[in-house]
Amino acid sequence: MSQLNKWMLKSKISKLIIVITSKETGEPVERWQFDVGSSKTVDENADSTTEQANEKTDQDVQQEIQSIFRQITASVTFLPMLDGNCTFNVLVYADQDSEVPLEWGDSDAKDIQDAEKVQLRSFSTNNHKVDTLVSYRYERHQNVSCLARPLY
Q: Of 46, 63, 124, 141, which shows the fewest CB atoms inside 10 Å?
């Protein structure tokens, strides 16, 4: 994970994805995507007073991150239970000029076919803005009927 830290500090990452995969089938069952953008925009006309007023405190950033953690934790209410044994992969979309260690290799996007998608809250620091999306496979059972009986 030290490589991720290096890439983040140099703003070399545009996406960080965690894919949970079924060991039995090799198919991705959940995909957590974090789109990383730069919070800094270059404005030659902006003065340093305006920039300082827009700076977030560590406490502000921590509150935003805690909020996204709470939302991720609450996602168990809508995500389907993971059946069987699973593993996970970390995918990184890095800039073309990024130095890539040998232990990292190319991969496909590990997209989930016919996925349900839920956009989670965004958060930002003084350097980065992060948008979060979770995709998952939701098996709709074709043979299930909804039955009702009037209550008298």
A: 141
